[in-house]
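cron nightly-structures :: item 1 of 1
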Amino acid sequence: MAWLVSDARVLASAELAETRAARRKGLLGRSSLDGALVIRPCRGVHTIGMKFPIDVAFIDEHGVVVKTLQMARHRVGVPVFSACTVIEANAGAFARWGVSVGDVIEVREE
Protein backbone atom coordinates (compact mmCIF):
# COMPACT_ATOMS: atom_id res chain seq x y z
CA MET A 1 0.00 0.00 0.00
CA ALA A 2 1.14 3.52 -0.77
CA TRP A 3 -0.19 7.07 -0.79
CA LEU A 4 -0.06 9.80 -3.42
CA VAL A 5 0.98 13.10 -1.84
CA SER A 6 1.23 16.56 -3.42
CA ASP A 7 1.99 19.79 -1.56
CA ALA A 8 1.64 18.01 1.82
CA ARG A 9 -1.86 16.86 0.77
CA VAL A 10 -2.82 13.21 0.52
CA LEU A 11 -4.52 12.74 -2.85
CA ALA A 12 -5.37 9.03 -2.69
CA SER A 13 -4.30 5.57 -1.68
CA ALA A 14 -2.31 3.77 -4.33
CA GLU A 15 -1.43 0.27 -5.44
CA LEU A 16 2.03 -0.30 -6.89
CA ALA A 17 2.67 -2.23 -10.10
CA GLU A 18 6.44 -2.67 -10.19
CA THR A 19 6.93 -6.24 -11.38
CA ARG A 20 6.70 -7.16 -15.04
CA ALA A 21 3.57 -9.25 -14.40
CA ALA A 22 1.86 -6.50 -12.36
CA ARG A 23 2.68 -3.85 -15.00
CA ARG A 24 1.36 -6.09 -17.78
CA LYS A 25 -1.90 -6.77 -15.95
CA GLY A 26 -2.47 -3.17 -14.84
CA LEU A 27 -6.20 -2.57 -14.47
CA LEU A 28 -7.35 -5.36 -16.80
CA GLY A 29 -10.24 -7.36 -15.40
CA ARG A 30 -11.38 -4.62 -13.00
CA SER A 31 -14.59 -2.64 -13.28
CA SER A 32 -13.29 0.33 -11.25
CA LEU A 33 -10.43 1.41 -9.01
CA ASP A 34 -10.35 2.77 -5.49
CA GLY A 35 -7.53 5.30 -5.37
CA ALA A 36 -4.82 4.96 -7.99
CA LEU A 37 -2.45 2.52 -9.65
CA VAL A 38 1.22 3.54 -9.87
CA ILE A 39 3.07 1.79 -12.68
CA ARG A 40 6.86 1.99 -12.68
CA PRO A 41 8.86 1.94 -14.73
CA CYS A 42 6.42 3.02 -17.44
CA ARG A 43 6.26 5.51 -20.31
CA GLY A 44 3.10 4.47 -22.13
CA VAL A 45 -0.24 2.79 -21.52
CA HIS A 46 -3.27 1.41 -23.35
CA THR A 47 -6.87 0.74 -22.40
CA ILE A 48 -7.48 -2.20 -24.72
CA GLY A 49 -9.72 -4.69 -22.91
CA MET A 50 -10.48 -2.31 -20.04
CA LYS A 51 -13.98 -1.89 -18.64
CA PHE A 52 -13.81 1.82 -17.74
CA PRO A 53 -12.13 5.07 -18.86
CA ILE A 54 -9.15 6.34 -16.89
CA ASP A 55 -7.14 9.44 -16.05
CA VAL A 56 -3.43 9.03 -16.78
CA ALA A 57 -0.57 11.13 -15.40
CA PHE A 58 2.96 10.76 -16.73
CA ILE A 59 5.56 11.54 -14.06
CA ASP A 60 9.25 12.30 -14.63
CA GLU A 61 12.20 11.21 -12.47
CA HIS A 62 11.70 14.19 -10.15
CA GLY A 63 8.01 13.45 -9.52
CA VAL A 64 6.79 16.24 -11.80
CA VAL A 65 3.61 15.64 -13.80
CA VAL A 66 4.70 16.15 -17.42
CA LYS A 67 1.42 15.17 -19.09
CA THR A 68 -2.14 14.21 -18.13
CA LEU A 69 -4.91 12.83 -20.25
CA GLN A 70 -8.18 10.97 -20.02
CA MET A 71 -8.33 7.74 -22.01
CA ALA A 72 -11.51 6.08 -23.18
CA ARG A 73 -11.71 2.30 -23.31
CA HIS A 74 -9.93 0.41 -26.10
CA ARG A 75 -7.32 3.07 -26.92
CA VAL A 76 -3.53 3.01 -27.34
CA GLY A 77 -1.64 5.97 -25.91
CA VAL A 78 1.49 7.58 -27.30
CA PRO A 79 4.56 7.01 -25.09
CA VAL A 80 5.89 9.98 -23.12
CA PHE A 81 9.64 9.48 -23.20
CA SER A 82 10.38 11.98 -20.41
CA ALA A 83 8.23 9.94 -18.02
CA CYS A 84 9.43 7.09 -15.83
CA THR A 85 6.20 6.50 -13.89
CA VAL A 86 2.51 6.48 -14.79
CA ILE A 87 -0.38 7.01 -12.40
CA GLU A 88 -3.80 5.72 -13.43
CA ALA A 89 -7.13 6.47 -11.75
CA ASN A 90 -10.83 6.42 -12.56
CA ALA A 91 -11.75 9.08 -15.13
CA GLY A 92 -12.48 12.34 -13.34
CA ALA A 93 -10.28 11.60 -10.33
CA PHE A 94 -7.56 14.08 -11.30
CA ALA A 95 -10.10 16.91 -11.54
CA ARG A 96 -11.36 16.05 -8.04
CA TRP A 97 -7.81 15.82 -6.70
CA GLY A 98 -6.63 18.98 -8.49
CA VAL A 99 -3.82 17.20 -10.38
CA SER A 100 -2.35 19.06 -13.34
CA VAL A 101 0.84 19.38 -15.38
CA GLY A 102 3.68 20.83 -13.30
CA ASP A 103 2.48 19.39 -9.98
CA VAL A 104 4.93 17.30 -7.99
CA ILE A 105 3.51 13.98 -6.81
CA GLU A 106 5.29 11.81 -4.28
CA VAL A 107 4.51 8.12 -3.86
CA ARG A 108 4.88 7.34 -0.14
CA GLU A 109 5.07 3.66 0.62
CA GLU A 110 4.03 2.20 3.96
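cron nightly-structures :: done
The beta strands are 2-6, 9-17, 36-39, 54-59, 65-71, 85-90, 106-109.
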